[in-house]
């Protein structure tokens, strides 16, 4: 299937005479990538819209991407939209796929062109975006556990300070076992990507999120909430809660309402803290991995050169005889 090159819908520069110019941006003014991930219906798209509006009101430039090929309408102005590059319905038809297979294949096709997306994100603009906001498909595992999801995440993380905003539907997580499955999902994403992760407890206009913070801080409080439940699943949640204590310690959290805008200043403060964490912890690790890869490549080249030398010497020897 033909995949067109990713294109910008509109440039995010202010149009005040200084048109966006080609050229990589300096590392010091690199925008922070916010990957918005969360279970279906947690409020990712609404939060994207809220973040874009909040930043626009504050006069903070942002660059916005939609990576959900199946979304019907995008209520924020996306600079790059996967739907312009891959037609999800055609993909389903052409490969005889169901909805999830269609999303996965669309994402795979898009990932083959992701270097071009990174180039567009890296373009020097006036004003320079401070954030790159990225909306992901509602089917969480399609993004977090697919090869294309990993390619996209790594492409961002090796180019920009990158963090994950894990959106939780606070109202739906008020049941301890739902809360636990959400935390396990977040935990697996944290350990898979190793990127700074911010738990964004969304919909606090419906249910406040303090109960969740108490559950994370104190195992006994969570245990109490589970007390009335004697099923096997509750026992499992209890044991898991102990295991997750260390995970909770490495997490930042914030309560927000994408609907009303409450908590957005605190949200961006935590995003900044995550960007700092990226620079201090993730970046040195990334540089170490890159160095190791370069050394391996050098060794491979040296071994090939040596093989070539031996082959050439062998041929010369043979011709002499
Ligand atoms: N009350 C309230 N409702 C919200 C909030 N954020 C989102 N919603 C509602 O929750 C529903 C799902 O929101 P979406 O933004 O579509 O969620 P999503 O995670 O992008 O959904 P998928 O793309 O299907 O995964 C919609 O009806 C929203 O209006 C919030 O902060 N408060």
Automatic annotation (TrEMBL):
Keywords: Cytoplasm, GTP-binding, Hydrolase, Nucleotide-binding. Residues 30-195 form the AAA+ ATPase domain. Its main location: cytoplasm. SUPFAM superfamilies: P-loop containing nucleoside triphosphate hydrolases. Pfam families: ATP_bind_1 (PF03029). Its EC number is 3.6.5.-. Signal peptide: none annotated. SMART domains: AAA. It is found in: Cytoplasm; Nucleus. Gene3D superfamilies: P-loop containing nucleotide triphosphate hydrolases. Residues 14-25 have a biased composition (Polar residues). Residues 1-13 have a biased composition (Basic and acidic residues). Residues 1-25, 293-321 are annotated as: Disordered. CDD domains: GPN1. Binds to RNA polymerase II. Belongs to the GPN-loop GTPase family. Small GTPase required for proper nuclear import of RNA polymerase II (RNAPII). May act at an RNAP assembly step prior to nuclear import. PANTHER family: GPN-LOOP GTPASE 1, XPA-BINDING PROTEIN 1-RELATED. This is GPN-loop GTPase. The lineage of its organism: Eukaryota, Viridiplantae, Chlorophyta, core chlorophytes, Trebouxiophyceae.
């Amino acid at each position: 299937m033909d995949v067109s090159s990713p294109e910008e819908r509109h440039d995010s520069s202010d149009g005040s005479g200084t048109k966006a110019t080609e050229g990589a941006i300096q590392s010091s003014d690199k925008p922070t990538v916010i990957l918005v991930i969360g279970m279906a219906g947690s409020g990712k798209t609404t939060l994207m819209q809220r973040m874009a509006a909040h930043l626009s009101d504050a006069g903070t430039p942002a660059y916005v991407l939609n990576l959900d090929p199946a979304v019907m309408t995008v209520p924020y102005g996306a600079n790059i939209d996967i739907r312009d590059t891959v037609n999800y319905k055609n993909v389903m038809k052409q490969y005889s796929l169901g909805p999830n297979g269609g999303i996965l294949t669309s994402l795979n096709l898009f990932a083959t062109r992701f270097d071009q997306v990174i180039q567009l994100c890296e373009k020097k603009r006036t004003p320079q975006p401070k954030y790159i906001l990225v909306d992901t498909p509602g089917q969480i595992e399609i993004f977090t556990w697919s090869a294309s999801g990993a390619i996209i995440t790594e492409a961002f993380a090796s180019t920009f300070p990158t963090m994950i905003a894990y959106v939780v539907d606070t109202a739906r997580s008020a049941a301890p076992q739902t809360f636990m499955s959400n935390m396990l999902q977040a935990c697996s994403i944290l350990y898979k990507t190793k990127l700074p992760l911010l738990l964004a407890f969304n919909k606090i206009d419906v249910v406040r999120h303090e109960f969740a913070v108490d559950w994370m801080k104190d195992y006994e409080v969570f245990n109490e909430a589970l007390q009335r439940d004697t099923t096997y699943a509750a026992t499992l949640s209890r044991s898991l809660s102990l295991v997750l204590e260390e995970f909770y310690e490495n997490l930042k959290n914030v309560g927000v309402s994408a609907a009303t805008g409450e908590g957005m200043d605190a949200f961006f403060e935590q995003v900044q803290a995550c960007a700092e964490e990226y620079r201090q912890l993730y970046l040195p690790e990334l540089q170490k991995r890159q160095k190791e890869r370069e050394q391996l490549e050098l060794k491979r080249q040296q071994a090939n050169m040596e093989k070539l030398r031996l082959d050439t010497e062998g041929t010369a020897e043979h011709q002499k005889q």
